[in-house]
Structures are given as C-alpha cells and as structure tokens.
Design brief:
It is a single chain. The protein is α/β, with parallel strands linked by helices and 244 residues long. The chain contains eight helices and seven strands. It has one domain (8-236): 3-Layer(aba) Sandwich (Rossmann fold). The protein has a seven-stranded parallel β-sheet with strand order 3-2-1-4-5-6-7, sandwiched between helices. Bound molecules: NADP nicotinamide-adenine-dinucleotide phosphate. NADP nicotinamide-adenine-dinucleotide phosphate binds at residues 12-13, 15-19, 36-40, 43, 64-66, 91-94, 114, 141, 143, 186-189, 191-194.
Amino acid sequence: MTDIRGAVALVTGASRGIGKGIALAFGRAGIRVAVNYHSRADDAAAVVDAIKSAGGDAIALRADVSQSADIERLVREAEKAFGPPTILVNNAGILGVLSNDEVDEAEWEHVIRVNLTSAFLVTKAVLPGMRKAGWGRIINLSSVAAQTGGATALHYAASKAGLVGLTHSYAARLAKTGITANAIAPALIETDMVTGGLRASPERIPIGRFGTLEEAGETALFLVRNGFVNGQTINLNGGLYMSS
Ligand code: NAP
C-alpha cells in the first residue's frame, strides 16, 4: 500500500455521479482533487465545498474534455493549483440513448470523442508529470456495456471497450515506470445517467439494488493504494456480469 496523503488527482466529470463519489473518497483520503466539470458549475462547487469542509483540499475546473484546447488549459490549471496530477481518473462520459440503427456518423464520432478520445488526450497531457514523479495511477471508467453490449447503442459499447484496450496498452508499456493503469466497469450505480438517461430498474441487478457513489469511490481508492493491480478491469456491478 502506498501513502497517498497529499497526492494530486484529476477526476474528469466529477460534478456529479461516479466522478463525484470518487472525488469525495479521494478528498477523505487526503488526496488534493481537481474536480473537472463540463456545465454544472454549482454542482462542482458543492463537491469542492464538501471536500474542504471534511478537511481536504480541492478546486473546481471547467473543461469540455472532448476539446484539446480545454484539456491543455485544464491540466495547466490543475498543475498551477496543486502541482502535476499523479492520479488521473478518466470518468467523464455520455450515454447516447438510441437504437443501433439511429446512430449516424456524427453521433458515433461525438460519443467516441467524449468517452474515448478524451481519455487518450487527458492521459497524454498528464503522463509527463507522472513519469517525472516515477509514480502514477490511471483509472478509466469503462462499463458493463463493453462486456455485454449494454442497454444502449453500439457507439457507447464501442467507446467503453476502447477504454479497456487503452488501459491495457498503458498498463503494459508503463509497468516499469511506477505507473499503473486499470479500468472500472460499473453497472447501475445510482446516478443521473442510470436513473434519468437509462431509466434503469435496480431489479436488473442480482443484488437487488443500485450501487452507491461511496462504493464507486472506494473502488477507485483501492486502485490508487494498490500498486500491484495493473491492467485489470474491476467489475462493480452487483453480480450482473461475472468474469472468471
Ligand atoms: P453522469 O451522472 O451522467 O455524470 C457525468 C459526468 O460527466 C458529469 O460530471 C458531467 O459534467 C461530466 N461530463 C459529461 N460530458 C463531459 C465533457 N464533455 N467534459 C467534461 N465533463 C463531462 O454519469 P455517471 O453515471 O456518473 O457515469 C460516470 C462514468 O461512468 C461515465 O463514463 C459512464 O459511462 C461510466 N459508467 C457509469 C455507469 C453507472 O452505472 N452509472 C455504468 C457504466 C459506466 P456536468 O455535470 O458538468 O454536465
């Protein structure tokens, strides 16, 4: 286990949902958190306030992670506030609730860019700092959709499967540098995406309830603390999909 107090994390899409759960768990563990958001400034400010009132440190940073210029500014601002992030959670994502036949080229490119290309670009911007530190943690939010096809269309599933390939490549090539890369594949954590976008019912989950933001946060924290887990996909799904 690594002493992570004072480490710097960048969590994309941390204004609500799983990103929020991870930011709060990191804050409680003494990690300084750059809380990225896209449009919901008030929600991001509330996450920062919650971390600060619990004795931690955080900053809210607006950026659309599908835009290269925004990413450069995001990483610069995080570095200015706390120093180079050595923990990166590529969490920001969108769903696209469509049938496969409704996905046209523009919709395909948009979802791939927000969900997958963003992770490549943010990681590329943050990696030099991790290499310099000789330590780093990359955590990518995949999905059960990568494993089962999922409840929404093919572009979402493809973006989430792409994140697993990205994770494997980083994990293999960075293994000797002190940097690990892992994915989390959730299903039905209680967030806006699940209750609003998918309108999913907890009855689909064998355990019989939605997962919590705290359970997502603790999973990410485990991946930060443990330096021997590398190149893995952690299934956080109440038994919906079982891997061997
Ligand atoms: P959510 O409740 O819809 O929250 C999405 C977050 O992403 C928000 O903070 C949003 O920011 C941010 N975001 C969206 N587009 C962005 C962009 N272009 N740039 C920066 N931030 C952006 O989603 P969630 O359920 O917490 O899901 C989080 C991640 O886990 C996603 O990648 C999702 O695909 C994955 N996942 C979730 C589940 C689940 O059960 N919830 C299952 C499988 C996979 P604003 O608030 O500012 O809009």
